[in-house]
Amino acid sequence: MKTQVLFSYFLVLLFTFATAKPFAERGLADNIVKTVKNLLHHGIGTFFDPESEGGAQGACGPWADENSQIVAMNAVQYGDLNKKSHWCGKKLKICSKGKCTVATVTDACPACKKGCLDLTPAVWGQLESDYNKGIIPIEWDIYNGDDEDEDDERT
Length: 155
Fold this sequence. Notes:
Number of strands: 6
Distance between the termini: 22 Å
Structural class: alpha/beta
Shape: globular
Order of helices and strands: HHHEEHEEEHE
């Protein structure tokens, strides 16, 4: 999917340079940046201990604890909480304030709003050192292992 998106942006940029109007006059730079930002999911990150909050076995099946590199997907995007979601097993690249990590969706968060993720303390700690905060702003997307930030993967 990223390859298709990048190819589309390449075509837009190629078209932009082929026209006579300056880039800034057309406003395309701002539109491209806005479009790329809209491709990411935005929300709030919270943290939970799978063993004491919701059960050590997640909605997707695997067992987890506070050291597991996993997240719980918000109910809106997870879908039917009584079934295994298409999100189950997907790796997500999650970023907050310039720090990023990769974690796997293995659970659902019934109380989380769209775009939000519930992180284990292990994942939280890679994005924020202060556990007293309770919430952090996050951006996330599916991680396919094909971007330049492979050093961010902690799984």
